[in-house]
Design goal:
By secondary structure, this protein is mainly alpha-helical. The chain has one domain. The chain is elongated.
C-alpha cells in the first residue's frame, strides 16, 4: 500500500470519517473503496501488461461511411443558414 497526502474538503472528510466509524474500518479503507467505485474498472486497466495494451491498440478498427453532406461547406451563405437553423 502506498502512503499519500490528500487535501479534502471538510464535508468530504466528515463523510469518510462517519462512514469509517459506522463500518468499523479505517478512513483509508473507506476512501479506497469510494475511489475504486468512482473509477470503475480504470485501475484494473492500468494494470494491463505492455502486450495487453498493444493488443488493444491493434484490435481498434476505424469504420467510416459516406455522410452525404446536405450543404456545400464552401458555400458560406449555406453554412450560415444551416447554423442559424434556416435549413
Amino acid at each position: 500500500m502506498t502512503r499519500v497526502t490528500v487535501e479534502l474538503d471538510d464535508d468530504v472528510l466528515g463523510f469518510l470519517e462517519q462512514r469509517a466509524v459506522d463500518e468499523k474500518r479505517s478512513v483509508s479503507e473507506v476512501l479506497s473503496d469510494v475511489l475504486r467505485d468512482a473509477l470503475g474498472d480504470a485501475p484494473a486497466k492500468a494494470l494491463l501488461t505492455e502486450e495487453e495494451r498493444a493488443e488493444r491498440v491493434r484490435t481498434f478498427k476505424w469504420i467510416s461511411q459516406p455522410m452525404h453532406a446536405m450543404i456545400d461547406l464552401e458555400d458560406h451563405a449555406a453554412v450560415a443558414a444551416a447554423l442559424a437553423g434556416d435549413r
